[in-house]
What we know:
Helix content: 40-55%
Mean pLDDT: 87
Amino acid sequence: MRRETLRIHAAELFEQRIKPQEVARRLRVSPKSAYRWHQLWRDGGVQALSSRGPSGSGCRLSPRCPAKLAAYLDQGPAAHGWVEDQVWTRRGWPR
């Protein structure tokens, strides 16, 4: 959300004809980001700078895995063989 707020503020500065280099300085972002935002703003206006949601790949877990994982975590480390120090760790895996 913070990044979108910065981009929207950058658009306001671009509307005032402030150059990308100065926008970068004022908003404390890289010039590369400011120039990219300026191009997006010129091509599509403020809407082009709106967030498109989280990036990255989607979750690869099957639908039942998160519930199963939550149950394991609720049971605690000892229930799964980590009785010595009660800490989840890969050391000694598999048990």
